[in-house]
Amino acid sequence: MTADDRRPGNRFDDVADAADRAFRLLPAAPQDIPPPGGQAARHPAHRISADPDTVERDLIKLVLTLVELLRQLMERQALQRVDAGDLTEEQEERLGATLMILHDRMVELCARYELTMQDLNLDLGPLGTLLPPAEEP
């Protein structure tokens, strides 16, 4: 096996490690913690550390993060379609208005739960952040 053959596995390990950090995953129980070294040490059983006082806010944060990711993906796809000339002028106007409304609703929901848009951006370690950087006004 060459170094190139091992690279994708390392990338998956990087993603798993980043997810562990982002969602504060902890070993499930002391008996589930494998001894140091070996392959088993890299993939211990995990559970989410849920604080009863913040579980609702954490769940809202996760849901809003996914919604914001999807909103940004839709926005990028819409821009590609506009650039490619796939849409009529009326469709462009409707799509633009819809995307602006979606963004406004996201801001409202964040305010309602005392979150900022930056709170929704998960740090994936060596992969960077989940969401692209915020655009300057």
From TrEMBL:
<protein>
    <recommendedName>
        <fullName>Gas vesicle protein GvpK</fullName>
    </recommendedName>
</protein>
<dbReference type="GO" id="GO:0031412">
    <property type="term" value="P:gas vesicle organization"/>
</dbReference>
<comment type="similarity">
    <text>Belongs to the gas vesicle GvpK family.</text>
</comment>
<dbReference type="GO" id="GO:0031411">
    <property type="term" value="C:gas vesicle"/>
</dbReference>
<dbReference type="Pfam" id="PF05121">
    <property type="entry name" value="GvpK"/>
</dbReference>
<keyword id="KW-0304">Gas vesicle</keyword>
<dbReference type="InterPro" id="IPR007805">
    <property type="entry name" value="GvpK"/>
</dbReference>
<feature type="region of interest" description="Disordered">
    <location>
        <begin position="28"/>
        <end position="50"/>
    </location>
</feature>
